[in-house]
């Protein structure tokens, strides 16, 4: 059985929940909708928006070049997306323009792609 801290397992969980490409995330992060959602510390960039930028970095980095901070963020992303999906509306009520969807997209997951 693989350890929970095994890099291959962390990458697998991350890639299970991130269903947007680096290019899709970058394009999304440039939109007003992306920048309008999420918790903002001190009125600056939201945590989810900053996460999206880090996800793009991770997706574009070869696995052998990822560091401990990257793996910590991958664990955070997998946990956030799974919790957010569990708290969200049922499939038939998922509205394309909802803040719920937009927040998830900042974290690299488009629920309408499921």
Automatic annotation (TrEMBL):
Please give the InterPro entries that the UniProt record associates with this protein.
DUF3140
Which keywords does UniProt give here? DNA-binding
Q: Which domain of life is it from?
A: Bacteria
Q: Which Pfam family is one of this chain's hits? A: DUF3140
Q: Which GO terms describe its molecular function?
A: DNA binding
Protein name listed in UniProt: DNA-binding protein
């Amino acid at each position: 059985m693989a350890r929970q801290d095994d890099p291959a397992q962390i990458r697998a969980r991350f890639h299970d929940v991130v269903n947007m490409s680096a290019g899709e995330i970058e394009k999304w992060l440039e939109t007003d909708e992306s920048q309008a959602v999420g918790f903002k510390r001190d009125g600056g960039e939201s945590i989810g928006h900053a996460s999206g930028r880090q996800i793009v970095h991770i997706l574009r980095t070869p696995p052998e070049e990822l560091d401990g901070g990257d793996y910590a963020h991958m664990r955070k992303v997998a946990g956030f997306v799974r919790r957010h999906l569990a708290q969200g509306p049922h499939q038939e009520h998922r509205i394309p323009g909802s803040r719920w969807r937009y927040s998830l997209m900042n974290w690299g997951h488009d629920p309408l792609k499921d």
